[in-house]
């Protein structure tokens, strides 16, 4: 072993010994050993020169604490219950330089990723997955992951919190084939597909809350994701499309169903300085594409030039049993529009108690009022949508401003990620103000 490597190993062992304390008797023979169950803090670059080398030293329960700097690496976490945290969200930057697919890959349960920035990756800023193919960076046909005959394996329990993901070639924060997790207090911009994406989970038991997604192709997307799937209290404004929930044959666990979309601000989603959407989506607040049994409640959906909410089929998969209740719509090209250009026709979808002015077809709030028989065909119409302008490369999207810091980032211990997160009560989720999370956003909404 080279002397430099020996010096590094010795330094790490001394640091771990000082942090965790020594085990064994008083003769010093056990120095450098870690007592069973002891937790340590491994500091980058003081104890290990790179984030990846620090993560490789970590054991379950450890904290990898990263000092300010730009780190040109791709970090993979294969050890359970490790916390990766930056001391400064804006000044700890994992920069892929467009040379690597992912900034951080979480491939073990109970991991927390906190208080740092991931940018300039060809695929994802942060990827949380139980799929070996996805973790290896094998993209599908159009952004998602087509894992072929690989059986569905879930990563169980994760936390992504206070993370800034910007200028990534597919998704900013991506949970795929994962369950029992939370994505919160984060910011996603400049994603060439979706800022935040949850795919292929059933039941998901995932909460996406209090995030800002702007200047992306799509703010939030949930594909084949349902079952205790909550998207609550987010600011999805200034994208090309605000939010989609859809069924797609490219991923397993069809169809998408039973998600709750509540208390979100979904506004002004016709931002030109964004990457172009593959399907031409533009000016849409919420798109339901073959999703079923979802609840959309107390969202503020305003200022989307095409439509506030579009309900349609995905190829052969109709939307069934979606409930649109107590939302506030305003200033949209069409507030709510239902259209079925294929043979797949929606059934049992309904509206109740919304504030809205325009629907296609007309009088939809009356003809499709809740409750609606499960087998009743949904009425449909058509309208003229605005033409989507060309986009810009994701590498040219405006940089984010400073974002809120994780409290006591440098002094708090490792984060214990629960096996199953606490799920919100939909009845407790309020209608958001226009100012929701405005201090963290570049795109203004009026």
Task: Name the assembly state.
Answer: single chain
How many separate domains? 1
Give the biggest sheet.
20 strands, parallel
The poorly predicted ranges are 1-32
- Could you please say which CATH topology applies here? Pectate Lyase C-like
Strand tally: 31
Keywords: Repeat, Signal
Signal peptide: 1-20
Domain Right handed beta helix: 159-329
Organism: Streptomyces andamanensis
Description:
The chain is mostly beta strands. The protein has a single domain (14-24, 32-306, 385-440), classed as Pectate Lyase C-like (3 Solenoid). It is built from four helices and 31 strands. The strands form two sheets. It has a 20-stranded parallel sheet that branches. The model is unreliable at 1-32 (pLDDT under 50).
Short description:
The protein has four helices and 31 strands. The protein is globular. By secondary structure, it is mainly β.
List the helices and strands and how they pair.
Elements: H1 3-20, E1 41-44, H2 51-57, E2 63-66, E3 69-71, E4 75-77, E5 83-86, E6 92-95, E7 102-106, E8 111-119, E9 124-129, H3 132-135, E10 155-166, E11 171-176, E12 178-184, E13 187-189, E14 194-201, E15 206-209, E16 212-213, E17 218-225, E18 229-232, E19 235-237, E20 241-246, E21 259-262, E22 265-267, E23 284-289, E24 295-297, E25 300-302, E26 307-312, E27 323-325, E28 328-330, E29 336-338, E30 350-352, E31 359-360, H4 364-367
